[in-house]
Each structure stands twice: as structure tokens, then as C-alpha cells.
Design goal:
mainly alpha, 2 helices
């Protein structure tokens, strides 16, 4: 019983880490895509106006989206970790009850 819980907790923690890594990779790809779009806009810009503001805005939007995705992944990971703690507490309570003779 305890070994199953330990394996389950390890699986949950691994899944949480996987979610965070995927979010970071997605955020990095989003930022890189925004930078590429900014370079493309700058290269095709006909007017000689100040395009650095456009570039900065695109990059800022991409970074904000990346930040949101990472925060969401961290929230999901924390929720998974909390779930594992609750499972451990449940098993510990069952063991204590068993030892006391309640069950």
C-alpha cells in the first residue's frame, strides 16, 4: 500500500515537472516566433518610420503570453503536488487508524 502511494506520488511529481517543462518550451517558441515576426515586419517595412516600437510591442506581447503559460503550468503543477500530499496524508491516517485498532 505504501509502495503504491510512493509510486503514485512520484508519477504525479514527474507529471508536474513535465507540464512545467512543456510550458517553458512553448513560451520559448512563442517568444522566438514573435522575434521572427518582428524581424519580418522590419524587413518589409516600406516607411522609414520608427519600427522599433512595433518590434518592442510584438516581443512584449509574446513575453506576456509566455509568462501566462508558465504561470498556468506552475499552478497545474502545484495542484498536482498538493494532490500527492493529500494522498500521503490519507494513507498515513489509514495506517494510524489501523495501528490504533480503529479499522
Amino acid at each position: 500500500m505504501a509502495e503504491d502511494t510512493y509510486t503514485s506520488i512520484k508519477d504525479i511529481e514527474a507529471e508536474a515537472e513535465k507540464i512545467i517543462e512543456e510550458a517553458k518550451a512553448t513560451a520559448k517558441a512563442t517568444t522566438e516566433k514573435a522575434r521572427a515576426e518582428a524581424r519580418e515586419i522590419l524587413a518589409s517595412e516600406i516607411s522609414i518610420g520608427d519600427t522599433s516600437d512595433v518590434e518592442k510591442e510584438i516581443i512584449a506581447q509574446a513575453e506576456e503570453e509566455a509568462r501566462r503559460k508558465i504561470e498556468e503550468a506552475e499552478r497545474r503543477a502545484a495542484k498536482l503536488k498538493k494532490s500527492s500530499v493529500e494522498q500521503v496524508e490519507g494513507v498515513v491516517n489509514e495506517i494510524v487508524d489501523y495501528m490504533k485498532g480503529v479499522r
